[in-house]
Please model this.
Amino acid sequence: MPAEPTYVIVGASMAGAKAAETLREEGFGGSIVLLGEELERPYERPPLSKGYLLGKDEKSSIYVHGESWYAGNDVDLRLGVTATSLDVGSRQVGLADGGTLGYDRLLLATGAVPRRLSVPGSDLQGVVYLRRVGDSERLAEALRGGGQVVIVGAGWIGLEVAAAAREAGCAVTVVEPEAGALYRHVGPELGGMFADLHREHGVVFRFGESVTELRGSGGRVTSASTSAGVELEADLVVVGIGVLPATRLAADAGLDVANGVIADAGLRTSAHEVFAAGDVANAFHPFYGKHVRVEHWANALNGGPAAARSMLGQGVSYDAVPYFFSDQYDLGMETAGLPEPGSYDQIVYRGDREAREFIAFWLSGGAVVAGMNVNVWDVSDDIQALIRSRRPVEEAPLSDPDTPIADL
Ligand SMILES: Cc1cc2nc3c(=O)[nH]c(=O)nc-3n(C[C@H](O)[C@H](O)[C@H](O)COP(=O)(O)OP(=O)(O)OC[C@H]3O[C@@H](n4cnc5c(N)ncnc54)[C@H](O)[C@@H]3O)c2cc1C
Model:
């Protein structure tokens, strides 16, 4: 009898843990080894800039699975173990401790790492990033001290940290080189709404400026200078300038890498037995007809299982409409689709924009390409179906809250 195959998953976070779960659910009887360089078992990152950062969520609520789940499902979870090399010829993974591990199929779920700020002074104490649970815990502690917080970058992380810092009583200035908040994510119109929300809560924005230097005293940051020649006092500098896909293992192994690990619609990479999912994967998206890399929780939640099915030889065409959510102050929102500037020519609103209870639809050529529901719930599935339909819609029913989205 042939030996049972070994499937190795590199990266013990959302995509990796969900892939392991799906392998077992689909009846895979071989070995599953889940390698994670962090010491925590797989956890979800969104609470790190929201409820967990604010001290509202218990730590127990952030984990993907209960502690006993891994042993109970015969998943060999190895924490504190970094995969340092990959040999796709001999199907071996090299480990930081010098050991090696053979695999029959391998999933790269290595995620992403924060882009570093590289200006003079960026290595001072008090210059922090937010990716891991320990980062969130240290940031929560720092925010409790109050004081002046400078946030570099008005993206999702920057804005969510701004909200948490304001709730903790800190003075907050956000420095952003683009013309507005969330500019590349949702365009100027909806980005402007988020900036207004933050201004109402006392956040100061410096758009069109970048941080050029950090100064300190005794090794600790005390101020941030901007390209406008302004020096901002800073007890803490939080850098949220995006992430880079963790591709080193794949690139060194000779896999196709370009803005992530290139994969097909079945999440298979250029090496036949190697798959990729989550933040690290730049996979061909059948709906968009191009490669798309999505840095969102739902893409790890759904992409990990899709890769697992593909590893099992099931025909997979992973074409989920990108989905993202955020909570800031008392505003909760979900966004479906890719509403980057240039991808739309019209925005239609339904609901009460003043009260921030509305849906924004981004359209291109009369069809909805993306939608954001703000403090309106249970509509995202219908919005995603509308996007997927590509059908042209009339403005009047689209803006009418009494017309069900499913009927458009
Ligand atoms: C603070 C924060 C808030 C967020 N909020 C939201 C939100 O509100 N909504 C949303 O949609 N998305 C949000 N995201 C994004 C979301 O968390 C990510 O899209 C998601 O974590 C991606 O999951 P992943 O499993 O692909 O990768 P990751 O979560 O990055 O995990 C990859 C794991 O692989 C490990 N690893 C990497 N290389 C190796 C190696 N060589 N050997 C062993 N292990 C390795 C890493 O240490 C890491 O644990 C947020 C992210 C952060 C950081």
